Amino acid sequence: MAELIRLKNRGPVPFVATLFHDAYCRRGGKCGCRQEKHLSSVVNRQTGETGLRESMRAAPVGFSIPPGETSPPMHRAVLYVPGVAEAVKATPPVLVVVEVAAAPAPKSRPVVPSAPAEDSAIASGSSRKR
Ligand SMILES: [Zn+2]
Prior knowledge:
By secondary structure, the protein is mainly beta. The chain has helices spanning about 20-30, 85-90, and strands spanning about 5-10, 15-20, 35-45, 50-60, 60-65, 75, 95-100.
């Protein structure tokens, strides 16, 4: 089953949702959040001085789909995002799920009958599993 889907907005207004980390990233297995610097004040217990501590935290990103438009491919974990599930299940549905083929075939590749078959593994980021 393809993991990627697209969402088509059938509603009259732009559809907007936020890809919360717990709902989207954790299920999708990949974090798409922005990493933001976050400054928090901390009190040094030894000196009593107040300082700033810098830490990174994930800020969820939002997305919007204009009316009649289809979103770019997204992990199907998006269906767990608040607002998305409701929009898909609504009657009539506001969002329609469009399946995305897992491996899109290249269209512009010329077919040369006499060329030797190039089926030796073209590794694209695959790691050895042994
Ligand atoms: Zn995340």
